[in-house]
Amino acid sequence: MIHLYHCINARSFRPLWTLEEMRLPYELTLLPFPPRAAAPEYKQLNALGTVPLLLDGATRMTESAAICHYLATRHGPSPLAVGVDEADYGAFLNWTHFGEATLTFPQTLVLRYSRFEPRERRQPQVAQDYAQWFLARLRAVEAALADGREFLCAGRFTVADVSVGYALMLGTLLQLDAQYGPAVAAYWQRLSAREGLARAQQAQKDAIRRQGLAIDEVLGMPLPGGRPA
């Protein structure tokens, strides 16, 4: 059984979304945020104390975009993967890693200096600068979608869209979505309407209730649609 360790709306949402898109059976453990401080025993499983951590038999993985690629290929065949024999294989790999390395990196600094640091250590100008960095990097996504294509590569929804889509979801939670270009905004609207995304969002809410966690323990960022009842 696949086991995913996850924090609400963290990078681990990427593999959670992929699992739900593929409808694979899995076990989800929700950790209080940040796990390295709030759940120190977790470092016995992952020395860094970060999420995600995916366990699949003897396989242990901690990189969110790589986990999505792994799931779509190891547990495929799946249309979420693009094969080496397909023309868009290079684009698929590039967008999958672009979502994490290029888009999510500046967002983590926005979060750190606007939310996670103690109030006296927060740096609004740094947060604003990196928010603009993120928005500037979205120009590549805007250009790729400007011809009216529905998804980023291979003419279908893939884990490249999961990777980039998570960054757009996080941007929405950071209230940056009003500055998305028209093609990106329409693309995010398509992604946010996917049943797999809705199931993943519900899965993390269900885990809060199932594990009996206090909502303030687990929230590093707000839940879409507000706090669970």
Can you walk through the features of this model?
With 229 residues, this protein is of the alpha+beta class. It has two domains: 2-80 and 195-218, Glutaredoxin, CATH 3.40.30.10; 89-192, Glutathione S-transferase Yfyf (Class Pi), Chain A, domain 2, CATH 1.20.1050.10. It is 53% helix and 7% strand. A four-stranded mixed beta sheet has the order 2-1-3-4. Helix 1 runs parallel beside helix 3. The longest helix is centred in the middle third of the chain and has 28 residues, at 89-116. The relative contact order is 0.16.
Give a brief outline of the structure:
This protein is an alpha+beta fold. It has nine helices and four strands; from the N terminus they run E-H-E-H-E-E-H-H-H-H-H-H-H. Strand 1 (2-6), helix 1 and strand 2 form a beta-alpha-beta unit.
How are the SSEs ordered, and which strands pair?
Elements: E1 2-6, H1 13-22, E2 26-30, H2 35-38, E3 53-56, E4 59-61, H3 64-74, H4 89-116, H5 124-145, H6 159-173, H7 182-192, H8 195-211, H9 215-218
Parallel strand pairs: 1-2
Antiparallel strand pairs: 1-3, 3-4
